[in-house]
Structure formats: C-alpha cells, structure tokens
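Re: your question from the hallway

Yes, I did run it. Sequences:
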Amino acid sequence: MKSLRPYLPLGSLLLEAVITIGIAAAFMTALVAFSVATTRSSDRALEIQQSLWNTAEGTEALRAIAFASLTDTQTGTLSFAAPTWTLGTSGPQTLADGGTRIVKIEPVSRDASCTVVTTGGTVDPDSKKITSETTWTDSAGRSHTSTAISLRTNWQDPTGDCWVAEQAGQVNFALDTAEFYGGKQLRSLSFTNTGTTIVTIDKISFTWSNSAKLDQLFLDSSKVWSTTGPGTPLGAAVSSGTELDISNFTMTAGQVSEITKAQFSKEMEDVTMTMTVTFADGSVFTSGPFTPED
Amino acid sequence: MQSLPRGITLIETVLYMGLFMIILPGFVLFLLQLFHTHNGLDARVRMEQTGAEIFLELQNSLTEADAINVSTSTFTDDNGVLKFLDSSGQLVTIDRPTVVTVFSGTNQNVRRLRMQKGAGAAAYLTDPEIDVTQWRIDAVRSGSTLTGIRIQFDMAMLNPTADAYRKAAFAADTTFSLSGNTTEN
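Structure:
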C-alpha cells in the first residue's frame, strides 16, 4: 500500500494560521488605536469649546461691571449674584467643570497722541487691559490654557484727556438764527455747549461776499475783538477771511451764548457768509454758507 | 512520477473554519462596538459644533441688539426665554420647547433650543439627539443699567447610559456684554 505521507503539507498549516492571526491582530489594533484617538479628539474639541465659553465669560463679565469697580489685580475672580457680577481678588477660582479661571485687570499707558504704548507714556484713567485665562486638564492629564485679552474704555464718562470729546464737537451753532440788525450788524447767532466740560473759543474768522470790513466783535456782553483791542490783528478793520485771535471766550457745560454784535462797514443785505471757529484744544468748527436775515 | 498540485486538505478546511468561528464573533462584536462609538462620536462632534454655533449666534445678535425685551423674557429659570429686537428691529425669540423624537426605536421627549426671527419659521439650534437640560438666562446690571445677558446652557446626549452612546455633556456658563446703544423694554 502506498503511503500518503509524502503529500501532506508538513509545517505550512501552522505558519499560515499564525500569519493570518497576526495580520488580523495588526488590523484590529490599528482600528482600536484609531477609535481611541478619535474619541480623545472629540473629548478635546468639547473641552476647548467649553473653555471658550468660560474664557469669554471672563472678559464679557468685566465689560458688564461698572468701569469704576475695575481695580487693578493679577488674581481676579468673578462671582455672580443676580443681577450683578462682582470682581474679587483671590483667584484663581475653580469653575463648575473643574477648570480654573483667573481674570486680570491692568493699567493702560498712552503717549502724547493717545496711542497705547507698552513702555513709557502716561497711565490712561479711562482704559484698562482685561484678561481672562482659563486652565483645564484633559482626559489624558495634559494641562491646557485659553486666554482672551481685551481693552475696556470708560467712553461713557471719561476723565482723562484721551477720551474727552473735541471742544468743537461739543458746541452747536444755530446759524439760522443769525440776522443783520440795522443792515451792518450781525447779531443773534447763538451757540450752545452741549458737552459736560468747559470749552474755550480761541479764534474766529468770517467770510462774506462783498467788500465790507469788520471792525469789532462781541460775544454775549464781552467785546472779544476790535481794531483797538482786545485781540489781534490791531489797527485797521479787516477784510473777509481774516482770522481774529480773540480774547479767549469760555463756555461752561450747557451754556448758551450768541454773537451779539459783529460790526461791518457796509450794508450786508443778502450777503452770504461762512464762519470758522477754532477752540483752545485746536479743534475747529467750519460752517457751511449761510445768509443771515435782514 | 510528477506530484499532484496541492489542494486544500480536509483537515486544513476544518481548522480554518474552526479558527474563523472563534475569531468571527469577537470581530463582529468589535466592529459593532466601533460602529456605536462612531455614532456617539458623531453626536459629540455635533454637540461641540452646536455649542460653537450658538456662542457665535448669540455673540453677534446680542452685541448688535437694539433692545432686550426684559418684560416678556423669562429670566432666572432653567427653562428661560430670551426675547430681543435685533439690529433691524425684528423680534428674536430663543426658547427651549420639549419635542418628541424617535430615538432607538421609541418616542422620547427631547428639550431643544429654538430660535424664531420675526414672523419667519422657527429653527432648531440643537440636534434631536441632544437634550438641552438647562437654558437659564439672567439680566446683568451695573447699578440699574442693563449691561449684559448671562446664559447658563447645558446639553447632554440622549440616554447616554442606556444606549451605546458614550456619556458626554456640555455645560457652558457665559455672559454677553451689551453695547451702550442697546436698551431694554
């Protein structure tokens, strides 16, 4: 009888099985690693999103607190008791999700042109640098921090020079009330200081559409310029367009004043004028053409 | 004599089938687990995206709001309602109704965040597989002036323990400051 033994595939059976199992194991390990990585990635995305809300809360809450309550601190905390946020100084504070948050309030310096500078300059009483920093530990034990930095300004009630409105912007001129009295005197051009601070008029110039000369100017009851003083130029009546450096005229907040007399040398009937007013802070008001009533 | 080409022997077939039967159930279970994990992952990513979209929507619309309707909003309640006029004077309402959704083959009550602008159709801001467990709104004031809106917003996966979904939750607590032009009524 012929033996079948020489035809048996000796040894190859076990090797093939081992190779198959090995490939399957490698494949499954890769799938597990992929699954774990994507799960961690989604954990991380949720944590980042949550920290974004927490970090934003820090700066937004500091914007909702009265500017006067923002005292400088490097270890600030925030607490909410409806309807008010309150700033503390014992940070960092632990948040509901286990992370921690610290808020910082720092002074801001500006140069002479009111540009923010990091060195030198003068501390601006109307600006604060606000920072919110949230730190959390992810599921793999790694620490992460998200930070938001912003600038808070006291634009609604400024006390410093950088945020006070230009004087020219505070004064309303009622050009339509102007009239020529007796043909040669400009009167009743009223103007109001609508701001909350004092303004000072430094210079005035008029243009008009005839050859008349101007020789004196009164604001309220004060003579602020004439050919014999006060103010300059001195000596002769001036032509259209001449800038008058008047005796400084000050208006308190809310004050209403008027040009009570600008004396011209000729009849001014139907004359069209313009007026330019320069204030002590250098700001300028320039009117459009206007024709005073006769 | 030339040997015959090797075929698959009976013993090989039996052994391979045996191995296959051992490995197959585990492999199928593993693939099912992977499938469910992926489903959960998808919902968790949508939860993260939902959080981001709601944050941006609120940040934009509240910052530009003309007025906050304090008298008709529901504040200091876990089922809050926020009403405000947007920059075009249109009434915007964000609330959290409970809606029925089919989940895992059964009807489930899900609290979803909803936004309605003017007379337009309301749009849901959250997915039906995400339950908004808290939508709490508070007015923030500095003195008597309304200066911000505080929002506490919690989301959770629907049935995270009873289903294959991996438990995930999103809890956010933030404040949106209002511009000086935003009034209240």
